[in-house]
Amino acid sequence: MKKTSDILSSLPPTLTGYEKTKLEQKFASRADSTVEAVEQYIISEHLNPGDPLPTEAELCKLLGVSRSSVREAMRQLQALDIVATKQGKGAFVSNMSLSPLVNTLVLRSSMGNGSLGTLDEVVAMRKYLDIGVGHELVEKRDQTDPEKIEELQDLVKQMISKSATGHSYIQEDIAFHRGLISILQNQLLDEMMSAMWLIHMAVVPSLPADPAGLILTAKAHGAMLKAVEDGDIHAYYCAVEDHYEPLKARMNAAQ
């Protein structure tokens, strides 16, 4: 069975541009509607990541579409990390990670003049996430494993120590924020935070160095953690503002 792209590339040269466009739209429409149908099947059957999907032939019969439409739809769903295939075992529901979104945003952030604009949006998103989880972090402070708090305290000490000698602490920074978020036991939130960090790391190295800002940011992490421990939501919000202020200053200096 030919791929849709092969069919489109073999269209007769005598077709007008308008006729080719209409045929391309027809194929695209079939594939898109098949994508939606497969997604609806996953939802209606209450499938979970790792569950098997029907075979190509079964999907053709089930959805009333051609095999080429099913194959094109499955390719699109794989690109979106909704479907995964295993050699000799067929197709399965994937983990549906944020990888496609991350890859697109990392590419966008690396494209010339748009990089700082994308970083500005990512930093704003990270800040919104940090502020948004504040109340729940404070509410769950008494339920948090003391060892988790000790881990976060150690990370703060490492960041302050590194910043005092002018060294960056990106890995400790990531571990701190992910550790703080882990208190909420929200996998999607953790994935979103990780996605924002990947984009952040793609652009930040191009910003001017700021040794003093590193120290202020390291201390702000400690203030965020202490505010959570004390149950002081106002202090937490202030610490979040202090945390992002040096980075915003570096971004403004780079513009």
UniProtKB/TrEMBL annotation:
Keyword Transcription regulation recorded: yes
Domain of life the protein comes from: Bacteria
Keyword terms, alphabetized: DNA-binding, Transcription, Transcription regulation
Keyword Chloroplast among record annotations: no
Name assigned to this protein: FadR family transcriptional regulator
Record domain HTH gntR-type: where: 28-96
GO MF annotation, one: DNA binding
Organism: Winkia neuii
PANTHER family linked to this entry: GNTR FAMILY REGULATORY PROTEIN, TRANSCRIPTIONAL REGULATOR, GNTR FAMILY
